[in-house]
Specification:
By secondary structure, the protein is of the alpha/beta class. Helices cover 48% and strands 15% of the residues. Pfam families: Hydrolase_like (PF13242). This is HAD hydrolase-like protein. InterPro entries: HAD-like_hydrolase_sf, HAD-like_sf, HAD_sf, PGP-like_dom2.
């Protein structure tokens, strides 16, 4: 008897809707400098980036950071990022894509691993909040996977079926989270991962968010 639900997109924020890769590289390099590590180029970052983030640091340091190092680096990263975030904007074409998806009678939401209290005013500040039925940021410690957050996120959306849901993000972890709840995923190359590392996941990989939405429409049909 269940009510038929339409297609739903769960958008990632950082590196997807929000084009902040330059601030992220800068923040990462500021954290590395603290431990005397060499700065990374964008290419190198995309090639090596992974979650959980301490694992990413292990790829660079040759060992896992100690708890003290992790806390130090995490603190510097967030401080630097907060300063440089103000110069970042939405990815080109985002407003039109969100408005178009919504006006076709379909729903969308944001699930981000960015701190919830900071995410909401940011989304609101860009004037795009009305396009989403829910905006969820991370609560709890940073550095983990999105999968459990995705379970809670979808669980709190009424009338949204996982099999009609497509997660659009820039990280392999977005696809892992989607599969974890029985949803589909489309990965976008404009953020933290290289095309090669995204293609290894086995879901569609696109270079623009417009293609991502077209793909989501196809997958959720």
């Amino acid at each position: 008897m269940g009510t038929k639900t339409g297609a739903h997109i769960v958008w990632d924020w950082n590196g997807t809707l929000f084009h902040d890769i330059d601030a992220i590289i800068g923040a990462t390099n500021a954290a590395f400098a603290e431990l005397g590590l060499e700065p990374l180029t964008l290419e190198k970052y995309r090639e090596l980036y992974c979650v959980p983030v301490p694992k990413f640091y292990e790829r660079l340091m040759g060992r896992l950071p100690t708890e003290a190092e992790w806390e130090l680096m995490d603190g510097i990263f967030h401080r630097y990022y907060a300063e440089h975030r103000v110069r970042c904007g939405l990815t080109a074409g985002v407003e039109e894509l969100l408005a178009g998806w919504r006006s076709s009678g379909r729903s969308q939401s944001i699930l981000s691993m960015y701190v919830h209290e900071e995410l909401v005013p940011l989304v609101r500040g860009f004037g795009i909040e009305p396009h989403f039925i829910r905006v969820d940021g991370r609560t709890g410690p940073s550095g983990g996977s999105k999968a459990e957050h995705m379970v809670r996120h979808l669980g709190s959306l009424s009338g949204v079926a996982p099999e009609r849901t497509v997660v659009i993000g820039d990280a392999a972890d977005d696809a892992v989270a989607a599969l974890h709840v029985g949803a589909r995923a489309v990965l976008y190359t404009g953020g933290s991962h290289s095309r090669a590392s995204l293609e290894a996941v086995g879901v569609p990989v696109v270079d623009t968010l417009e293609e991502a939405v077209d793909e989501a429409q196809r997958l959720a049909a």
